[in-house]
Records
---
Amino acid sequence: MLDIRITGGRVADIKNRQLKNADVGVKDGKIVQIGTDLPEAAETVDAAGQVVSPGFIDIHMHEEDFSITQKKGWDIAECMLRMGVTTAVGGNCGSNRQQPSEMEDLMRLQGGPVNYLFFIGHNFLRDLVGNRDTRAASTPEQIEQMARRVKDAVDEGAIGVSYGIEYARGMTYEEELGVCRYILGRDDLLLSAHYRRDAAGALPSIDEMAGLCRDTGIPFQISHLSSCSAYGNMREALDLIQKYRDSGLDVLADSYPYAAFSTSIGSDVFAPGCLEWIGADYGDIELTDAPYEHVRCTKEIFEDARKNYPEMYVVAHVMREEEIAMALAHPLVMTASDGLYRSHKGHPRGAGTFPRFLGKYVREEKLCDFFTGLEKITAMPAKRLRLDSRKGYLEEGYDADITIFDPETILDKATFADPQLAPEGISRVILNGKTALIGQTIVNGGCGRYIRRP
Ligand SMILES: [Zn+2]
């Protein structure tokens, strides 16, 4: 007797690039059978007319902050589940909201809405070892302490190190390299970075990240390439990444499907001169929380928010749409959300990225064929995370992380005014073999597990 039998759907076979008419049987957290004449099940799901897909994998997002949630309920993890994500990677851009072990302890007790993996963030460690000056390089002693903490975090299952270079421009290349001194050559790990500078600084920033890949011997994930290069030099940025890839470096990138970026107003991203640098005006910057919720900046409001509400997230409507599409279409780029919320406020990408990518970019704009699109949000990130022997494909023996959706209707609904609205077109998500979501309703928010690096 199966736990779940999914009948009548079209099963996404990404390796052979075909939709197979078959039923899917789930038992004890695994996909145990794909075919016809499956045994009886405790729960039968009618998936007629829909695609039965591997659950989506978000390689770049920002987990909840326990100092805000108090570990009571979730914020972004629920948005992830509602948009079909079954596995998400936190600790990006150098920033952990708390020690990954805190998340592990919580999820051991009560699970979570999605599976979580984590980077250990360099900027987070800078803070822990006492370097709170974003303009200052860390001392040799601080670098040594961070390097040891990196080793410990990796030993405890972190997937690698993330950097938020733009958020602490005082960090030197020697510091970036130094924190990896005990993990050099570990090609089972992954580095990722929020680049040093965007726009005119994008290409030298890509050189810096490729240098880190070469000098550490660790694969490198360039984070949210859109906000780095969608100001006029995306073609050059993609060509440069391709050049490094062709030279033998394991460099890939991710990108989100929106022409607006988001970060906190107090961060160094908004240091003096930032707007001139990217060719933007104060009015392009939208604030997201009281007393300025959905207010576009003036010089006065911008300065007041930076001074008095530095943690507030803003949305910067500053990137070129055609370059967003160019990035998403590139074979070295996977789609990731960079989702980021503070008390449910922020940018809609955390609730809309994957349905938007499949609906707007793949179906409507035909940016790439359906299987290439699906691969960018399932198999490609699974492979990057070395989870592809158990996740990212829908095959017998794989983890039963399954997203069932209608390819004709799937679409994001979250907006800048209402950034956590659930998408349309996803009828069900099964996570670790249990039904987690039906329609837009989370029926079991505890199916997700903390995953230590395999
Ligand atoms: Zn970032």
Note: The radius of gyration is 21 Å.
---
Amino acid sequence: MKQRWFLVVSTFSLLLALAACGTTTGNTPAGTPTTVQVTETDFKIDASVTTFTPGTTYHFVVTNKGKTAHELMIMPKSEGSMMGGMPMGDMDKMALASIENLNPGETKTLDYTFPSSAASSHPEFACYLPGHYEAGMKLGVSVSS
Ligand SMILES: [Cu+2]
């Protein structure tokens, strides 16, 4: 009986430890990046933080809760829809940071620090898979001065 309890408790601890991954709980010593939860759905992007401080490292935890694959591009400013005809490669080069191909249910992380040159700018989080930006997969954010 005692042994059985031990098993239950250790299983529970393991689950807790697993749940703690990807959240800000646990040890957070000074200087640890600020976690930003980004949720992508069909077809919307939400972020737990939308105003960023230059020089601060952000740990983006991006989860695809949709039923189709998505990506996350952090663009220096709103580039509008791809209908303008900009080739995909140029978009990739222009992106400050990006997570490509996030499958349904998948979570990927990305660390990014906005440089001081980005102060007072208005970047945009976007998914540029065909039709997704047009469907609403864009989120305007701002970088404080
Ligand atoms: Cu998408």
Note: The beta strands are 34-41, 44-47, 51-52, 57-64, 70-75, 97-102, 107-113, 124-126, 138-140, 142-143.
---
Amino acid sequence: MPHWSRQVEPREPPDVLVAGGGMAGFSAAVAAARSGARVLLVEQYADLGGTATTCGVGAFCGETVGQGEVFDDVIAALDRLGAVQDYAPYACREFRKFDHELLKFVLADLAHAACVELLLHARVVDATRSGRRIDQVLLHTAAGLSAVAPRVVIDCTGNAALAHAAGLETLKGRPGDGLQLPMSLMFFIRDVGRPVAPMLPAGCRRYADKSELPMLSLWKEGDGKIGCKLKVIGFDSTDADGFSDSEIAARREMMSVLEFLQRTSHPTYKLDYVATQIGVREGRRVVGDYVLTEADLRAGRRFDDGIALGCFYLDAHSPTDTANVYQTEDRHVPPYHVPLRSLRPRGTDNVLVAGRCLSADQMALSSARVMTTASMMGQAAGLAAATAADAGIALNALDIPRLRADLSARGAVLDA
Ligand SMILES: Cc1cc2nc3c(=O)[nH]c(=O)nc-3n(C[C@H](O)[C@H](O)[C@H](O)COP(=O)(O)OP(=O)(O)OC[C@H]3O[C@@H](n4cnc5c(N)ncnc54)[C@H](O)[C@@H]3O)c2cc1C
């Protein structure tokens, strides 16, 4: 094994470092900063939003009211730009559409207003631990490597990148075969008002009939644009080569599907835009002080340290079938708690996670990963981290009734 040793530039330590600027990381950073903490938010891409923006997802699943003031502010800002569908309760409509390009602007603007120190084009690459604490986090930025020593870290990378780098225990996939929830590539086509010549690049499969296509969801985006979601199976997002291969394979598949659409149902449509990254539903998840389970969700279980309320159905597509097949027929669950214990990696004092790398089994993750719940977890993690950093205490020593009361005061409905 090669061993590297070198001096790296130190960076001024924040109270709270948030790794990953998806809906969870954004919400965590803003909540912590609004609580008075000095917050560094590290994001590898140019925009915040993560899966929502980089992967082109344009609808909030679940309940969009009562998620907390950070999410409320996102909705209000989108609304001012005419970029979000009107409200309907989850019981009436499962999705609330928004413009994912404008979301990029809205999130950066809100983070800036909250005085979050935002470091884009920066990647968390490693971390060191002393006992139960992560003490140093290694970043790779446009300027090279630098090290930062935050009081509290929140891993919102979606794939527990920081926790994994620090050697904390993680899980992935489902029991038995370890297969992850399938990925999907989002791409967009536009009506150009005249017939286009379908083109199939060499080596791409030619589909003869609709029944042969992989699962493909189409929806109208307005202004002649249609969104397309293409299911992709057989790849592991935590494997370096597998993740890279998934992008190549998905784009080849997209060309086959596009040619089929142009030859059949959409003869006047051209490729408009392809998401920067394939959509990953599941990466690594931490093993926390509690692993949230499918049984907890089905029972609508409540916890003393419940800090988020999920309600979305078990959205677990089969990882072995390209068709529209779910792992369970009985998908609906009552509202359930996500406990703070499931955001605390086991054996740590100054680490939290939020979003889709929470401590949960695959079926529980399939519901709790949606953006509404991810944001709710993020707001809670941010508030908890800021409180612990300020008081100089371990995260498992927080006053839980007070944390829950503070979250409720910030608009989080925890006990519906
Ligand atoms: C195809 C698809 C369709 C979906 N449809 C919906 C839907 O309609 N509605 C809905 O609510 N949910 C949907 N989801 C789920 C939802 O979008 C995600 O689960 C949710 O956005 C996850 O948010 P997150 O913040 O936990 O993670 P992510 O959005 O994955 O954010 C993680 C962030 O961390 C960054 N990052 C990762 N590693 C590093 C690193 N080492 N250093 C720095 N930054 C890093 C990433 O760039 C990213 O910005 C869908 C998911 C997929 C894949």
Note: The CA atoms of residues 74 and 106 lie 7 Å apart.
